[in-house]
Amino acid sequence: MGTVRVGWIGCGRMGTAMAKRLITSDYDVVVTNRTRAKAEVLGELGATVVDAPRDLADCDIVFVMVSADAQLMEVVSGPNGVLANESSIPSVIVDCSTVSMETSANVRVACELRGVDFLAAPVSGNPEVVASGKLTLAVSGSRDAFDHVRPLFDLLGHGVSYVGEGEGSRLVKICHNVLLGIVTQALAEITVLAERGGVPRSAFLEFINSSVMGSTFSRYKTPAFVNLDFTPTFTPVLLRKDFELGMAEAKKMNVPMPLSALCTQIIVSAIGAGYVNEDFAVLLLEEARGAGLVLESENVTIDDGLGAKS
User: CATH homologous superfamily of domain 5-166?
Assistant: First the structure.
């Protein structure tokens, strides 16, 4: 059984999947969410549900998984935030959200003023990746705080990289998601080219996945490409946000990113075409539309490389 009391803020799809791994590892987990009903799902698994982030102040470590910069500021330093409790505060706050480096730095300062260590720990993956134990995390902040939280990180995923002090992990995550979009667009283009030449998508992607160019990611996206199942894991709107963050950092540091700039516009085009709530793999459909090709599901069983077939 875990010996520390863990707080968890944010019970969306990712937050729920991650917190569940700690709960099922017998840690004492206390959860809260803006919509309490979502937190109650974890309550049924054994977590304690509370009303607000300030109610987590007696936890040793508090994790945060929210969707935007303003929400991170609110749950940490707002009127009902973790730091609002005058009687007690956690020793470490760990934020796994994808937010700007500026917001992360501001939250770090707010934590330091209360004597709380702040770890920026954005993640790579989605709920299915979490469930398979293949989540990866980049972490920056105090090395001592990282070592303290490391046993929990190891339960959340298999790849934990300490990248230094400050907000380095935020930049790592932004770079990761820019690469995610570029690779997906490239995969969409070559898949449409192959199909235009008469090669089934399933056969082409089987070849790619078996070659040196195959990856965990290409295998994972193959079912969506083959069967046109765009159940969202990460939407084009969220991907656009990360590209904009990446381009802003590149501008500040005078790093030319011509491919990223082009891909940003392609993503904007997909959103303009109405792809807002689908998975960002719909970049395949936009590529096919540009080629005058109407895609149809191949309706074949595909292994996603994570142990599931669809």
Answer: NAD(P)-binding Rossmann-like Domain (3.40.50.720)
For residue 80, the tally of other CB atoms under 10 A from its CB is 14
Contacts of 284 (CB under 8 A, 6+ apart): 187, 188, 191, 192, 224, 225, 228, 295
Please state the separation of Cα 156 from the chain's center in Å. 13
Task: Supply the mean pLDDT for the chain.
Answer: 94
83 secondary structure, DSSP code? G
Residue 2's closest CA among 24, 28, 21? 28
Q: Which part of the chain has CATH 1.10.1040.10?
A: 171-290
Q: Are β-strands 123-124 and 136-140 bridged in parallel, bridged antiparallel, or unpaired?
A: antiparallel
Which of 137, 123, 135, 10 is closest to 76 using CA atoms? 10
Torsion over CA: 108, 111, 117, 120 (sign):
negative
- Indicate the CATH number of 171-290 among 1.10.1040.10, 1.10.3660.10, 3.40.50.720, 3.40.30.10: 1.10.1040.10
**What distance in Å separates the CA atoms of residue 67 and residue 180, rounded to the nearest whole number?**
18
Sole residue written with tokens 């904007």:
268
Question: Dihedral of the CA atoms 275, 278, 280, 282 (nearest 10)?
Answer: -60
Q: The pTM is what?
A: 0.85
Per-residue pLDDT tens digits for 149-205 = 999 999 999 889 999 999 999 999 999 999 999 999 999 999 999 999 999 999 999
Cα separation of 232 and 239, whole Å? 12
* Phi (first) and psi of residue 247, to 5 degrees: -65, -35
